[in-house]
Amino acid sequence: MAIAQPMPALYAGLGCRRGCSVDVLEALLQEVLEHHNLNATALRGFASIAGKADEPGLQQLAARHALPLVVFAAEQLQAFEPQLSHRSAVAYAHSGCWGVAESSALALASLSHASATLRVARQVRGPATLALACAG
Question: What is the CATH number of domain 10-135?
Answer without folding.
Answer: 3.30.420.180
